[in-house]
Amino acid sequence: MNSKDTSLPGFRNGRTAASVDAFGGGGGGEGSHSPTFGAGGSNSPSASLRRFRVKAKANGEGEGGGGGGSRGATNGRRISMSRRRLASSGRVVGRQFSICRNGALALALGLLLSSGGWTAPALLLNNDDGGHSKGSGVGMRMAHAFTVERRRDAHNIKRIVFGTAALSKSSDPSALLDAAYSKGYRRFDLAHTYGGGQSEILFGRWLESRSGTIDRGELNIITKGGIGDDAFGDPDRPLLTRRGLREEVDESLHALRVDRVDLYMYHRDDVRLSVEQFVDWINDVGVSTGKVERWGVSNWTFERFKAAHSYAKAKGLVPPSTNSPQYSLANPSDGEIWPSTYSISGQDKEEEIDWYQDRGVELLCWEVLAKGFMAKADLWPEHEVDPASLDAPVERGSDEWRLQRMQRAYCHAENYRRRHLAVRLADLTGVNLAQIAMLYPLTRGRHISVIFGSSKVDHLDDMVALQHMNIDDEAMMLLAGHREVMMTDADADADKEEEGFAFLPRMMGLGRNRIRPIQLTAKAREAKIAAEKKVAERMPVAFTATSTSSSARGIGRSS
Hints:
It is built from 16 helices and 15 strands.
């Protein structure tokens, strides 16, 4: 994609109406894009296919030229515009225009003033007076359709979790934890096996040494266990028992120097054990004793999680409130990066993600930056990765083994496409690649949290800033690989009536608009309507991590 394909004049999303002051005057539209933090618009976490439609009414009063201004040329005119996607290039274009009299002039003027052909002019996006260009007599309020939106508290800071997998490698672990805490991190992800057990020990020492300055009630401590000393997820590891689980829970509490943890997760599944055993044991060992506030699992398949959740509900036990899969803009090629792990990054996992949201289950996602592939644009260049070397026999656990598994999972054509597009989005919006990658799952749903760990303080600042950002719907769809937007029959009929309308494309030197509408079958249309109804009725989940009761759902619903 070249630089002219990445940003177009358009509007925020398909659910907000925005005023267009075609020739000056009039207020800005509700929910319209603002370059500063504000209350405009609703958080739109879904990246599902949808129709984007904006109706704009030109009703402005000119502020320049004639003193009191004149409505004459624009009063009552309507511009109805829906954006479509070019599958050949991933470009989003405005392809349906219903224009009364000369209402198109305002839209054409905005396009003609654009730099690069399809970029909304900064003058019209960043006016301090709310979108008006006083004195000029011209003011259109538009927003990018491929952007990072800035809005205060778009995401709860508790959904950005500080990871401690490499805490033992830090030159000053306590100073690093101090920095994380001072910047607003309140959730900490640990595990019995991280650093050979050192992460829990180092965190416990830090917490005890700060007892006079840090309130334990403010922290949300997560730890994982149930796999003994297995550091690789070996499916043939010694079989877990109820007694073994009790010992691991107690060891973790002792290392952390606390009497309970807010979330305890089975670090891996083990299909040699039934889901009923896992549910019964953690309710007995952890929940009923007060040592575990909530419990969850890590790297469980969707089927196993559903079975455990259903069993717990049927038996009146506390069900798992969290699953921790790999979820990233980088989709692992075979769905598994490390032994016995599970990923939801593929497009075929969309229904799974929605299922978790419907039931208030948190997805606590790891390896979001894909081991640096989605943090450094020059890491593992495509031309330097030799596919033939990715299956060569190497020693398990060695550096070569780790590099081989990472490159085999992440270094493929689709991920390079996604990274290239993410870099373009980062460049256009003044953020960095790592921030785009972390925003990708955060934007997908409010029930999704991300784990981030770093030893560099400026990286901590970058991640904290994400609570005030959101990737817009169209950028989400392009990043995910959705090249087309579904259309209803009514939309298709309207487009057929205006087929070949070439006013704007011809003015822009692009020739006639030959884009064909996407027709839905009756079955697909029914499925789309049902899905939209389900989304409309769904109560968005805003995760609150400071619960003090053993809730069966485990996730609060306050924002």
